[in-house]
Design a protein that fits this description.
There is one protein chain. With about 130 residues, the chain is α+β, with helices and mostly antiparallel strands. Helix content is about 15%, strand content about 45%. The protein has one helix at about 1-20; strands spanning about 25-35, 45-50, 50-55, 60-65, 65-70, 80-85, 90-95, 100-105, 125-130. Strand 1 (about 25-35) and strand 2 form a beta hairpin. The chain is elongated, with a radius of gyration of 18 Å. The model is unreliable at about 115-130 (pLDDT under 50).
């Protein structure tokens, strides 16, 4: 019995270590804007006061359990891009089938210094500043 309990403790400690040592960062969003495009190239903007959490991991953005890639895959564009201004995450742009959805980060919790990633010169940068 003690061996089984010791094995369970060892497995849980490994899982906890991996969770805490990851590069995940979670940010609350306070508002979204949906950009819809019509066949005549018209754009419609719809802003809603939505609340939720966005998790940024190495190369993905997770919004409400849905994953979006920050890097291009198989000659297609990246599904998500980040807008950073003076070390603060301002918004996250997600490309969807019907258009684009922009998640605006809560300004009180937008410090972006804990999430860093290096890109080679051949890759497209998704982190930028205005």
């Amino acid at each position: 019995m003690q061996i089984i309990l010791l094995a369970v403790v060892a497995i849980l400690s490994i899982v906890l270590y991996r969770m805490l040592s990851g590069h995940r960062a979670t940010y609350p969003f306070v508002r979204t804007t949906r950009v819809s495009r019509t066949e005549a190239d018209s754009q419609y903007y719809t802003t809603e006061a939505e609340h939720g959490l966005i998790t940024i991991d190495d190369d993905i953005v997770i919004v409400d359990g849905q994953e979006y890639s920050l890097r291009p895959k198989n000659e297609s564009k990246a599904e998500a891009s980040l807008q950073v201004d003076n070390g603060k995450l301002v918004s996250i742009h997600i490309q969807m089938d019907e258009g684009e959805k922009i998640f605006f980060i809560d300004p009180e919790h937008s410090l972006f210094s804990n999430y860093r990633r290096s890109y080679s010169n051949s890759e497209v940068r998704h982190i930028f500043s205005f």
